Amino acid sequence: MTKRIFRSICFVAIAVFLASVALFLCVLYNYFGNVQRNQLKTQTELAAQGVENAGADYFEGLDTKGYRITWIDADGEVLFDSDAATAEMENHLEREEIKEAVEDGYGESARYSATLMERTLYSAMRLEDGTVVRLSIAQNTMLTLLLGMSQPILIIAAIAIALSFFLAYRLSRHITEPLNRLNLDDPLNNEGYDELSPLLRRIDAQQRQIRLQSEELQQKQEEFEAVTENMTEGIVVLNSKGIILSINPAAVRLFDTTKACIGQHMLSVNRCMEISDLLSAMEKGVRAEKSITLQGRTYQLDISPVSEDGSVTGAVLLVLDVTEKAQAEQMRQEFTANVSHELKTPLQIIAGSAELLSNGIVKEEDRKSFYNRIQAESQRMIRLVEDIIRLSHLDEGADDMKRENVDLFALANEIVKSLQTEAENVQITMHLEGTPAIIYGIPQLLQSLIFNLCDNAIKYNRAGGTVAVQVKAEKDRVILSVADTGIGISPEHQNRIFERFYRVDKSRSKELGGTGLGLSIVKHAARLHEAEIALNSAENEGTTITVTFPVPK
Ligand code: ADP
Fold it and tell me: Which of 140 and 458 is assigned the larger pLDDT?
């Protein structure tokens, strides 16, 4: 800006200077031209008077001093000329000043020489006898005047230009200084040009608006952070280039990074293929989801692009922990495969036996065992289907089952009684001890729980063994334990016997009519009652399973 003001002032100063010089020269030229013309007229009148009185004698010894004097007769013949020989002179009647003098008594004219560097003024006067006296004088043209004065003009011009440069420099600094001093942080508190007041007021208003907007933004940012801070889901906000703008603590933890990753590319935090695919989808403005495994857990990544006027401006990446869901899904798949397999075997036996019977291949004496086989497998299938139904019911939460006060001791007593015959058949002694113990629970599930434990204690026992069932009520808990003196479970199997369809000895379990689901039902039922299961077993010595039910006051 200083430069522009400086250049403008210099330009104006030089233009004014040149215009002044031109005007001065014009005025001077006109003034001196008029003076010279008047002098020439007076001289012509004097010369005409002289010639009138003295005739040709007037010219003898005449000192013309820069003038040229010509005497012309009425026919235009030159009678005398102070410059050229009379004989060489052409007829002068056609000259403008002569024509005027012949007609009006006096005439004037001016003519340029061939070079334009000189102008000649002519003044003519008619005498009584009709002859004409003409005087001429050389007059400087504007060009010669300018050339003649060039030296002083150049000196003055140099001084004027230097002066104007100096003044322009000072003036431009003087004009811009208050502008440079403006304090835009406090626009209304400035002393400067009045003309700047509207601008400063506007800046002040805009600054206030910006402050207000940034405060609002800050507040929204804080709100956003407060909401996302305590979320278990990870949230990462990205710009259109995949640069992290914001990341919540959960996402920092999941990606095993720090808050310092803000400003970095998402791929520098995790370089996996799935995130790269999600970023490609975001660039296309498409919502996408992928699942990845981080630190042994399964996460679902969900990217939602944010678009404005048809172009993607950023995206929100949501990270959800779906480990349980994935495990449940896997369990469901395994369960379905196991169920199909478990059902297939008895069905094949039933179908095979029925086919042999209907073909009449089976001997009469063997038929009974075939019928028994069909019956046993059908019973096993029924038990299996019943257990599956019970388990799926428990998987769904068993919400429809009513809770009530149940006396665990009375329930155990009923079950022990109902299993007494079965136990005696395999020479097992069963006994129950304890006192009434009330818990708030689901009677059907508690019945299944005790039944399965007692049934296993009989099944995996030896002839002459015992099964001791005990129900103990303590201050804030009720303990149920089922102890047997059976085959026991080796340590490597102890962790797994509560899994669905897991059996230590598959053929023995099947032989005894087991489904492999009994202990899964026990585990589920205990969990629904917030009870804890403890297993204590030694191979060939026996097994004790203890279930501890909390009793809130
Ligand atoms: P099953 O229908 O086969 O009895 P469970 O889920 O009830 O299925 O039990 C799983 C496996 O745990 C059994 O097959 C058996 O090998 C083992 N088991 C359960 N209870 C006992 C026990 N009291 N003594 C020894 N082994 C047991």
Answer: 458
Between 1 and 492, residue with greater pLDDT: 492
Q: Which of 326, 328, 285, 343 is nearest to 309 (CA)?
A: 285
| pLDDT confidence band for 195 (50 / 70 / 90) | confident
* pLDDT score, position 116: 53
Mutate to test the pocket of ligand 1, among 482, 509, 535 (most ligand atoms within 8 A of CB): 509
Per-residue pLDDT reduced to its tens digit, 144-184: 778 888 898 889 889 988 888 888 888 888 888 888 888 88
Atom in ligand 1 nearest the alpha carbon of residue 545: 23
* 482, 497, 506, 546: residue to mutate for ligand 1 pocket, most atoms within 8 A of CB: 497
For ligand 1, atom 19, the nearest C-alpha belongs to 456
Q: Domain 402-550 belongs to what topology?
A: Heat Shock Protein 90 (3.30.565)
* Nearest one of 399, 436, 414 to 528, comparing CA atoms: 399
Using the predicted structure, report yes or no on whether residue 73 has a pLDDT greater than 60: yes
Centroid of chain to Cα 153: 67
- 């910006």: which residue's tokens? 210
CA gap 81, 59 in Å, rounded: 9
> Which of 339, 384, 449, 456 gets mutated to test ligand 1 (max ligand atoms within 8 A of its CB)?
456
Nearest CA to ligand 1 atom 3: 516
> CA geometry: angle at 43 spanning 38 and 44, to 5°?
95
For 229-321, CATH number out of 1.10.10.10, 3.30.450.20, 3.10.520.10, 3.10.20.30 equals 3.30.450.20
| Amino acid (one-letter) located at 384 | L
Residue nearest to atom 20 of ligand 1 (CA): 456
Task: Look up the CATH superfamily of 2-148.
Answer: PAS domain (3.30.450.20)
CA 370–ligand 1 middle distance (angstroms): 27
**What are the backbone angles phi and psi of residue 542, rounded to the nearest 5°?**
140, 175
pLDDT mean across residues, the chain: 90
CA distances from 106 to 64, 93, 99 (A): 20, 14, 9
In whole angstroms, what is the distance from residue 170 CA to residue 2 CA? 10
- The total number of residues shown for the chain amounts to 553
Q: Which phi and psi (to 5°) does residue 226 adopt?
A: -65, -40
> What is the pLDDT averaged over residues 493-501?
93
Among protein residues, the one whose CA lies closest to atom 2 of ligand 1:
514
Contact by Cβ (8 Å): 289, 279: no
Q: Is 477 exposed, middle or buried (0-12, 13-18, 19+ CB in 10 A)?
A: middle
Answer whether 550's CB lies under 8 Å from 477's CB. Answer: yes
Number of Cα atoms under 13 Å in the Cβ half of residue 279: 20
CA 530–ligand 1 middle distance (angstroms):
22
| Residue list, ligand 1 pocket, CB within 6 Å | 452, 456-457, 460, 484, 486-489, 497, 502-505, 509, 514-520, 543
Q: Ligand 1 mean position to 399 CA, how many Å?
A: 28
φ/ψ (deg, to 5) at 243 = -85, 140
